[in-house]
What we know:
The protein has seven helices and 15 strands. By secondary structure, the chain is an alpha/beta fold. The longest helix has about 35 residues, at about 30-65.
Amino acid sequence: MAKKKAAKKKASSWHNIKQASSSRAATKISRKRKLNLSLRTMGTIAAIVLVLLGVAFGIHYLNTRPGTLKVAGVSEPLRQVYFETDGVLTREWLMERLDLPAQIELASIDIAGIRQQLMGEGQTREVTVEKRYPDTLVVSVEEREPLLHLVIVDAAGRKGLRLVDASGFVYHGAHYDKASLAKLPFLVVDRVERDGNGFAPIEGMSTVSELVLLARDGHPDRYANWKIVSLQDYDPQEENLGATIRVTTRDNRELVFAPTQFGDQMERLEHILVDPRINNLRDVERIDLSFHEPVIKMAKSGARLPSRY
């Protein structure tokens, strides 16, 4: 039997390589190339992100830096000043105090110095000064809210009017509506301590302001009749030893409060003032709410009438 001829070997060709049906590279070399390409792409993206972060940080630094750094091509002469406030101060008030040279470059402005100057005005509780390149300055102010009037008498006997906020800070006021200020009660204290060019905060005002704000916001009709709030019988160190806060009304009635539980005392006062048993409120000279049972003093008879409220 004749031997079969050996099968002829097929020539080697790329057509004979088995192709993968998925999208993955068929060889190690292809996979390596694809990995390198991915890494280069990620590196490029990371570099771009870092550059953008650097630019953002640079802009923030220039806008907030208190010094006098000049940046060529970025800073320009100051052209705009924006003023923002939550109170009554005006842009004209600000411009009088800035007094910046004409054509001063934004980068040359000392914003820390401006902030310190404006904080010294007293009426400002917080000040923020910001540079916005290339040519804008932004000043934002949080103002104090006046709660009481205070009459100051200097060594020469001269009287001056000041305002007091809820924290006890004493200051000059500007641009307030006169009609609104006229509604504020006066604060009476034994003395006001000097502090540099100004005055030390009034001691005990955190407690007093609680009473005044409660009356103003919760009992506006009663508050409108308040003329004087006196601390002459009040000592924060002796709250549990009979210390009281006295209020004189515009119709010359005296109200006496203990320095705690103001809500309960104001409710008792409301019940007293609408009580039909009190036929004429003009006859009521004094209402002492500092006791557990309020005591009412009548002007004509001078009698002290304990009541249950």
